Amino acid sequence: MSQNKAQLENWCYLACLLEATARKPGNVHPGVSFPDLTYVDFLRSAQAIAPLLPQSEPGRVGETILNCITATRDVSASNSNLGMVLLLAPLLAVPTEQTISAGIDSVLEGLSVTDARLVYEAIRVACPGGLGETETQDISDEPTGTLREVMALAAERDAVAREYASGFEITLQTAVPALQEFWNESSDWETAVIRLQLQLMADCPDTLIARKCGIAEAEEAARRARETLQAEDFEGGLQALDHWLRETGNRRNPGTTADLIVAALFVALRDGFIKPPAPATIREKVPPP
Hints:
Elements: H1 3-21, H2 39-49, H3 61-73, H4 82-92, H5 100-109, H6 113-126, H7 147-153, H8 159-166, H9 169-185, H10 189-203, H11 207-213, H12 215-230, H13 234-246, H14 255-270
């Protein structure tokens, strides 16, 4: 493996690991599981996709996504990473001599109908919850538009799809600058990731919550996240938000926000906006063989 690809693999895994390990309100982390999803699932999934994502390049984005989701299915029975794979694959396709912000539009414009077909297959393999049905380009049909075109049709109801339509506007214009600020201000990386979650939830109401519970619930989650970010008793606010998000099981899980955090962490690591934390500060629980 070339040095570039080895480094990309490391950044992919580290982005997934930091997101999963941070004790974020409403999400799975080392101390909290969902009935069908655990922290170990996220670790195993990250280990499965990290070596595959550096294979992404123009013309192979859809193939890379399908390969990643198929590999994930071999290690986890649940959908643990569809959203983050959908975000990471085009980011990894940007040539390493370019920054993500300079190269992502060209990658997105080059996406094809074949990419869309392979991604539809990947989504059917992952079987995510809360998709519903649409009148055009439904996931149960075969796509007739390019991957960017079909993603644009879902942009209003799904933030991951919106990134394809907008040139990764949330990731590049909101998430990465906020992460860099929090990374520099916070005493540890976990606090920076948690604050990023709150900022994203506040600015971009989580679309997984909206699909499962309705837009009013997503906007209420955004309001509570904003209050928590500004609270004098930050730890107390986090506990209250976490309690509210878990009141209905995992229906209020801010899962799309988590996917955006992974994308932001990868971009920030890859393009040098943040320095990787010391390995000793990451409480990784290695799954059994």
